[in-house]
Amino acid sequence: MSPEKVVAEASLYVRYAETDAMGIVHHSSYIVYFEEGRSHYARQRGSDYASIERSGIFLTVTEINARYIKPAVYGQLITVRCWIGEMRSRGLTFQYEILDAATREVLVRGHSKHICITRDGTVTRIPETWRAWG
After folding, report:
1. pTM score, two decimals?
2. Most buried of 15, 20, 25, 46, CB within 10 angstroms?
């Protein structure tokens, strides 16, 4: 990660509903954490994602990847780190790390690729306000 990248961090406690019978976070829950990371990133950059959607522009997921290193568990305070890894005219890639908030040990690394579309599904350019993020 280059030093000029803006990294958003959001911390949350692992909820019971996000875990399996052993109290370990279910793999699908990490994707939800990634989404919270993206939303927090947009808010931190001054552009609430819900308001962007109301304008008729959407970022649809085209690819998602998670590398599970160590499991998070029920009640654990975790931190989701999110930044833009790549910005293109019509798409972008977000990078993520999920850390134990106390030790800063990396639990999961991942990325998601997105394409910008209009309400009717037409691929379009990413708004200039977002392009400035990359």
Report:
1. 0.91
2. 25
**Which domains are seen in the chain, by residue range?**
8-131 (3.10.129.10)
Secondary structure (3-state) at 116: strand
Please list the pLDDT of the chain residue by residue as tens digits (134 residues).
Answer: 445 789 999 999 999 999 999 999 999 999 999 999 999 999 999 888 888 888 899 999 999 999 999 999 999 999 999 999 999 999 999 999 999 999 999 999 999 999 999 999 999 999 888 888 76
Residues forming a β-bridge with 25: 19
Report the b/e string of 2-26 with b at 16+ CB within 10 A.
Answer: eeeeeebbbeeebeeebbeeeeebe
Count Cβ atoms below 10 Å from residue 70 Cβ, excluding itself: 11
Q: In whole angstroms, how large is the CA radius of gyration of the chain? A: 15
Catalytic status, residue 100:
no
